[in-house]
Design a protein that fits this description.
Blueprint lengths: L1 H8 L1 H21 L12 E7 L5 H16 L5 E9 L2 E8 L5 H14 L10 E4 L8 E6 L4 H15 L5 E7 L4 E7 L1 H6 L4 H11 L1 E10 L2 E9 L4 H5 L2 E4 L6 E3 H4 E7 L5 E4 L2 E10 L5 H16 L8 E7 H31 L3 H23 L6 H10 L5 H15 L4 H32 L2 H26 L1 H9 L7 H6 L2 H15 L1 H19 L14 E7 L6 H16 L4 E8 L3 H6 L6 E8 L9 H19 L4 E5 L10 E8 L2 H15 L5 E6 L4 E9 L1 H6 L4 H13 L1 E7 L5 E8 L1 H4 L2 H5 L2 E3 L5 E3 H4 E9 L1 E5 L2 E10 L5 H15 L6 E5 H32 L3 H7 L1 H16 L5 H30 L4 H32 L9 H29 L7
Parallel strand pairs: 7-24
Antiparallel strand pairs: 1-3, 1-4, 2-3, 2-28, 5-14, 5-15, 6-14, 7-12, 8-9, 10-11, 13-14, 13-17, 16-18, 16-19, 17-18, 20-29, 20-30, 21-29, 22-27, 23-24, 25-26, 28-29
Length: 1018
C-alpha cells in the first residue's frame, strides 16, 4: 500500500506526526470531563398543581381529569401518568425519544393555561426532567454538642460549601428553620369572644410596611413609608388583641396564647450511627464535571472541618457519585491496562523475540491516545461506557498490527531484506485488514441510529470503539511497517520453512484435509452445536442492565397512621441495633418523622422513617449489597415488628444509572373502578406467595385513616353557621395559619404561625369540643353542628392514559433474574383469566428491555447487511463475502456456552456484545479467504490454496484471537465497582471468539470449497 511505502521512506515525518498526535491526546485526556454514564436527557416532563384542602377524589375530578383531557393530544406523547393526592396533583408526561421537549414546552404551557380549573387551585407548573436534580453527594454531620449547636454549625458549614465551584445547592435535612409559634388557649378565646381568625387579623394589621405618595418639604420631594413592624418576641407578645369587656383592660397576645421561638422540625429526628446529626445532599450544576465537583467539595469540607469552630463535627460520606465514578473508571482503566499486558505476553509467546512485540505494543497506547483526541473533539465524556468500549477493544487494537508484523516477519524469514519485507508484508495484508476494520466499524453504524435510551447509552460507546479501530488501522499501515523496516533483521536461516514442518502444523494440515474430505460431517456437527447453543441461551434468563453494586441502599419504614413519633423512634432504634452488629455496614443514617424527599418539601409524618445504609468497600466484604439485603431483610422486619406489629419495611437499591435492581413494576388498568379493585386483589393474592418474591406492594394499599367531619346543614343553620364557615374554622385549627413574617434586629426572618394548643388538635375527643365562633359572638361546639367519625381514604389515586390504574411493585431475590421472574408473573396472571377490559402494562426495567429488543434486532440485521456490503465492495465479489458470513452463526455456540457456564442473564450489554461479535468474527475468515484468492492468482489449485492459506494464516488468527480474548478477561471477571455493566459484554465476546476462531479454520474452508468451481464436486 502506498501509505505504508511512504512511511517506510519518510521515517522522521512519521515519527513527528506520531508525537504530535500523542501530545494532542494527552491534552485532550486532561480536558475530557469524567462522568458515570453518558448524559441522558429523556423527553420527560411533569405538571404539578396544588389544590389546598381538597381530598384525592376531589383532585381527580376537578383538576386531574380536565388537565389529562387537554394534555392527552400533545404531539409525540407516549404515556400520561397522573397521581392525585390530598391538596395536590402530579402528572408525569413521557414523550417519544424523537420529541424535542424544548420545542414542545410552549405548547404544554399553552394547554395548561387553557384548562378550566377551580378558583382555589393554584396555576399548574410544568417542569422538564433534569438529571442535575439528583444529589451527587450525601453525607451526614454529627457532634457531641446540643442539637441546637449542631444545627447552627451545620448551617454555617452549608453556606461555605455552597460556594464550591460547580455546586448548585446544598440541601439540609434535620436542620431547623426557626419559626415563631403562637399556641392559642381555647378557653381564653371564649372568655374574650375571639376566634383564631381574629388573632391572625390583629397580627397581620400590626406588621406593615406600606409606601405612600412623595411629600414636598423644604424644597425636596421625599418618598413616604408607613411602618409598623414586629421585630421581636416581646413586641409580638405585647400586641393588644382586644379589650376585656368586664374590666376595660387591654388584652395582649401573651394573655391568650403561648408565644415562643421554636424549630420547624421539632417533630422529626435525624441521627447517624445512633448519634444526633444532620443530612447534607449536594446538587451539582447541570454542565459540571461530576468527579471534579465531588473532589473540590470533599477538599473544601475537609479544610472547613479543620477550623476551630467545626473541630467537634464528624462527617460520614454516605454516597459520593464522584468517588464511585473515580472507582468505576479506575477499575475499567485497570482492565484496559491488564488487557494490554496480556496482549503483549501473547505476542512474546508466539513470535519468540523482543522487537516485534515492542513494535506492536506501541499500537496500544498510541491508538488509545489517538482515540482521546477524537473523543474530545466529539464532546464525549470519559464514562463507564466510553472507557468500557476502549477496554473491550484493547485486544482488537493490536489485531491489525499483529497481522502486518507477522506477515513482515514471515517475509523476513524467507530471506528478504527488512525494507522489502516491510513493504511487501504490509501490502499483502493491507486490503484484508482494511476490510476487517471496516466490517467491525460497520457493526456500530446501526447503533448510532438507534433512538431511545439505548441509543443515548451506546452512541458514545460505539463511536469510541470505531475511533480506536480506525486509529489502530492507521498505526498498522504506517508506524508498524516503518519501525519494522528499521528494527527487524532477517534471520540467518529460513525459519518459516522449519515452522511449516513442525508437528503442530502437520496436525493442522491433516485436520483441514479431513474436513475437506468429510464436508457433510463438518456441516452436520456445526449445525448440531448451533442448535444446542441456541437452546442453551433460553435457559439463562434476561435482565435490562446488570445490577451495579454501589454499596448503598435505603430502608423505608411505615407504621399505622396516628402512631406517635416516640413509637416510630423505638422501631427505628431496633433496626439500628441490628445494623450496628453487621460488620459489613459502614454507616447508617436515620430520618424519623419524615423522609429525605419529604424534608425537602417540609412535610412530616410521625409514623414514617427512612434509613440510609452505606456498606463497606467491596473488597472489605464477602456479600454484595443485594445479597446482604436479601439475607438481613427478615431480621430487620422481625426486629421492627417486635416493637410495633404494624411496622412495614420497604428496601430500595436503586442505582445511579436510574435502574431498579431486582424490581418488577407493572400497572393494572381498567375503566371500571370496582372491577379494577377486584382484579388487583386477585393478582396480589396470586403473586404474594411466589418463592422468589421478597416484597409485594400496590399503591391501592396506601390508604390513610382519617377523621371525617360531615357538616349537618340543618344544625349549622340553627346555630347561624354556613358549612363553609365550619370547614374554614376546622381547617385553621388543624393546619394553623401563617400570619406574617417577623424580621429581628439581626435581620433574621421568622415565620409567625398561629395554631391551637396541641391538646385540642391531637385528641379526637377534644376536637369534638372545638368551639366555633358564631356571628352573634357566642360559640358552638363542633360536635353540635357536624358528625365526626373515623374512616379511610386513599393516599393517592393513580391513572394511566386517562384510565384508573393500580401500580404493583414486586421485589425479588438476587439469586433469580428479571426474565425468570417475569415468566412466573406472566403465568400466574394468565391463570387468573382476567377480563379483556383489564389491561396489564409493565414499566421499569422490563419495559425498557422489551422496547429495546426491536431496535436491537434491527441493529443486528443492519450490521450483518453493512458487513456484507463492505466486504462485497472490498472483494469486488458477491460470492466470497457470502462464504465469510458463515462465521457469524458459529459465534452463537461459544456465546451460549459462556453465558450458561457463568449463569449470566442475557442483558442489554450482552446483546450489544453479540452485535459487536458479528463484526469481529468475520475478520479471521476475511484473512483466510483473501489469502486463498491471492494464492489462486499465483497459480495454485483451489484445494492446495485452501490448505496452504489456512496453515499460513493460522498463527496470526490465533494471535489476534488470543490477544482479543485475554484483553477481555479483566472485563469479563468484573473485578471492582462499576465493571458490572460491561461484564456480560466481555463474557459474550470471549465465548463467541473462542468458538468462531476454532470453527473458522475448518468450516470456512469447507464452505469455500462449495462455492469454488474446482472443488465444488470433489
Amino acid at each position: 500500500m502506498r501509505i505504508s511505502d511512504f512511511s517506510i521512506k519518510r521515517p522522521i515525518f512519521t515519527l513527528v506526526t506520531m508525537f504530535l498526535v500523542l501530545i494532542l491526546g494527552v491534552v485532550s485526556l486532561i480536558n475530557i470531563p469524567l462522568k458515570l454514564i453518558p448524559d441522558l436527557n429523556p423527553p420527560v416532563g411533569v405538571v404539578v398543581t396544588s389544590y389546598p384542602g381538597a381530598s384525592p377524589e376531589e383532585v381527580v375530578e376537578k383538576v386531574t381529569k380536565p388537565l389529562e383531557e387537554n394534555l392527552a393530544t400533545l404531539p409525540g406523547i407516549k404515556t400520561l401518568t397522573s397521581t392525585s393526592q390530598e391538596s395536590a396533583n402530579f402528572i408525569l408526561i413521557q414523550f417519544s425519544w424523537t420529541t424535542d421537549i424544548d420545542e414542545i414546552q410552549s405548547e404544554v404551557i399553552q394547554r395548561l393555561d387553557q384548562t378550566q380549573l377551580p378558583d382555589e387551585a393554584d396555576k399548574p407548573r410544568f417542569m422538564k426532567f433534569d438529571p442535575a436534580q439528583f444529589p451527587i453527594i450525601q453525607l451526614s454531620l454529627s457532634a457531641d454538642e446540643e442539637p441546637e449547636a449542631l444545627r447552627r454549625l451545620a448551617e454555617e458549614l452549608n453556606l461555605e460549601l455552597s460556594k464550591v465551584e460547580g455546586v448548585a445547592s446544598v440541601n439540609l435535612s434535620g436542620t431547623a428553620i426557626k419559626e415563631v409559634r403562637v399556641e392559642l388557649d381555647q378557653e381564653k378565646l371564649r372568655d374574650f369572644q375571639l376566634s383564631q381568625a381574629d388573632v391572625v387579623d390583629v397580627i397581620e394589621s400590626n406588621n406593615i410596611s406600606m409606601p405612600g405618595d412623595p411629600v414636598l418639604t423644604e424644597g425636596k420631594e421625599l418618598t413616604t413609608r408607613i411602618i409598623s413592624s414586629i421585630d421581636s418576641l416581646d413586641t409580638l407578645k405585647k400586641l393588644t388583641v382586644t379589650v376585656d369587656p368586664a374590666t376595660g383592660n387591654k388584652v395582649s397576645l401573651d394573655d391568650i396564647s403561648e408565644v415562643q421561638l421554636t424549630s420547624q422540625d421539632d417533630r422529626t429526628i435525624t441521627r447517624t450511627n445512633q448519634a444526633p446529626s444532620v443530612l447534607l445532599s449536594v446538587l451539582q450544576q447541570s454542565d459540571a464535571n461530576t468527579a471534579e465537583v465531588s473532589d473540590q467539595f470533599i477538599k473544601q469540607l475537609d479544610n472547613l472541618l479543620e477550623k476551630e469552630q467545626f473541630e467537634n463535627i464528624k462527617s460520614e460520606i454516605l454516597f459520593d457519585q464522584g468517588d464511585y465514578i473515580s472507582l468505576a473508571i479506575g477499575n475499567i482503566s485497570n482492565s484496559l491496562i491488564l488487557g494490554g499486558i496480556f496482549a503483549m505476553i501473547v505476542l512474546f509467546f508466539f513470535l519468540k523475540n523482543v522487537k516485534s512485540p515492542l513494535i506492536i505494543g506501541i499500537s496500544i497506547p498510541y491508538s488509545v491516545i489517538f482515540t482521546f483526541v477524537l473523543m474530545y473533539f466529539s464532546d464525549f465524556t470519559l464514562n463507564i461506557m466510553t472507557l468500557g468500549g476502549l477496554a473491550l477493544g484493547i485486544g482488537m487494537l493490536v489485531d491489525n498490527s499483529i497481522v502486518v508484523i507477522e506477515n513482515i516477519y514471515r517475509h523476513l524469514s524467507m530471506g528478504k531484506d527488512p525494507k522489502t519485507a516491510a513493504s511487501v508484508g504490509a501490502k499483502e495484508v493491507g486490503s484484508a485488514i482494511t476490510a476487517s476494520t471496516l466490517t467491525t466499524v460497520a457493526v456500530f453504524l446501526p447503533v448510532v441510529f438507534i433512538t431511545g435510551i439505548i441509543g443515548e447509552l451506546f452512541k458514545e460507546f460505539a463511536l469510541t470503539i470505531s475511533f480506536s479501530l480506525f486509529a489502530s488501522l492507521v498505526v498498522a499501515l504506517t508506524i508498524v511497517p516503518m519501525l519494522a523496516s528499521r528494527l527487524l533483521k532477517s534471520p540467518r536461516t529460513n525459519t518459516e520453512a522449519k515452522r511449516q514442518e513442525t508437528g503442530l502444523m502437520r496436525s493442522l494440515e491433516k485436520s483441514i484435509k479431513w474436513s475437506l474430505r468429510n464436508r457433510a460431517a463438518v456441516i452436520a456437527i456445526t449445525m448440531l452445536l448451533l442448535a444446542a447453543g441456541s437452546f442453551g441461551l433460553t435457559t439463562v434468563g434476561t435482565q435490562f442492565l446488570p445490577n451495579a453494586d454501589e454499596g448503598f441502599f435505603t430502608v423505608r419504614m411505615e407504621l399505622e397512621n396516628g402512631t406517635a413519633l416516640s413509637e416510630t423512634e423505638k422501631a427505628v432504634s431496633a433496626l439500628e441495633d441490628e445494623l450496628k452488629d453487621e460488620e459489613e455496614v459502614d454507616t447508617f443514617v436515620s430520618l424519623i418523622g419524615t423522609t429525605q424527599e419529604g424534608s425537602f418539601r417540609g412535610s412530616k409524618n410521625a409514623n414514617i422513617a427512612e434509613l440510609y445504609i452505606k456498606m463497606k468497600e467491596l473488597d472489605q466484604r464477602e456479600r454484595s449489597t443485594f445479597e446482604f439485603v436479601d439475607e438481613v431483610k427478615k431480621d430487620l422486619e422481625s426486629a421492627a415488628s417486635k416493637v410495633n406489629e404494624t411496622a412495614e419495611l420497604s428496601f430500595n437499591t436503586q442505582s445511579t444509572a436510574g435502574t431498579s435492581p431486582n424490581t418488577l413494576t407493572f400497572s393494572v388498568k381498567d375503566t371500571d373502578p370496582n372491577r379494577l379493585k377486584e382484579n388487583v386483589d386477585k393478582i396480589y393474592n396470586a403473586l404474594k406467595d411466589l418463592e422468589d418474591v421478597t416484597e409485594l406492594s400496590t399503591d391501592l394499599m396506601d390508604t390513610v385513616e382519617e377523621i371525617q367531619i360531615t357538616v349537618d346543614r340543618e344544625k349549622a343553620f340553627e346555630e347561624g353557621l354556613a358549612p363553609a364557615q365550619v370547614a374554614m374554622a376546622v381547617n385553621d385549627v388543624t393546619r394553623g395559619n401563617r400570619a406574617t413574617q417577623m424580621i429581628d434586629d439581626e435581620s433574621n426572618i421568622y415565620g409567625v404561625f398561629v395554631e391551637y394548643d396541641r391538646e385540642v388538635t391531637q385528641d379526637l375527643e377534644n376536637l369534638k369540643k372545638l368551639l366555633i365562633k358564631k356571628p352573634d359572638g357566642n360559640y358552638a361546639a363542633l360536635s353540635d353542628v357536624a358528625n365526626i367519625e373515623r374512616g379511610e381514604g386513599p393516599v393517592n389515586i393513580q391513572r394511566i392514559n386517562q384510565q384508573d390504574a393500580v401500580q404493583f411493585t414486586l421485589k425479588y431475590k438476587s439469586s433469580t433474574n428479571m426474565g425468570a421472574m417475569s415468566k412466573e408473573v406472566d403465568k400466574e396472571i394468565a391463570d387468573l383469566k382476567l377480563p379483556e377490559e383489564t389491561e396489564i402494562v409493565f414499566s421499569g426495567d422490563r419495559e425498557l428491555l422489551e422496547s429495546s429488543i426491536d431496535d436491537l434486532v434491527l441493529a443486528f440485521v443492519l450490521a450483518i447487511v453493512f458487513i456484507y456490503l463492505v466486504m462485497a465492495g472490498q472483494f469486488e465479489s458477491l460470492k466470497y463475502p457470502l462464504v465469510i458470513m458463515f462465521t457469524v452463526p458459529l459465534m452463537v455456540i461459544g456465546v451460549a456456552i459462556a453465558l450458561t457456564a457463568t449463569q449470566t442473564p442475557i442483558s442489554l450489554t450482552a446483546i450489544i456484545g453479540i452485535i459487536v461479535l458479528a463484526g469481529i468474527v468475520v475478520n479471521n475468515a476475511i484473512v483466510i479467504v483473501d489469502y486463498i484468492n491471492q494464492k489462486k492468482e499465483q497459480g495454485l489449485k483451489s484445494y492446495d490454496a485452501i490448505v496452504i492459506s489456512v496453515k499460513d494464516r493460522a498463527r496470526p488468527i490465533f494471535m489476534t484471537a488470543l490477544t482479543t480474548i485475554l484483553g477481555l478477561v479483566p472485563l469479563a471477571l468484573g473485578i471492582g465497582e462499576g465493571t458490572e455493566i460491561n461484564q456480560p459484554m466481555g463474557i459474550t465476546l470471549i465465548g463467541g471468539l473462542i468458538s468462531s476462531t476454532f470453527l473458522t479454520l475448518f468450516v470456512i474452508p469447507v464452505v469455500y470449497s462449495f462455492f469454488d468451481k474446482d472443488t465444488r464436486l470433489k
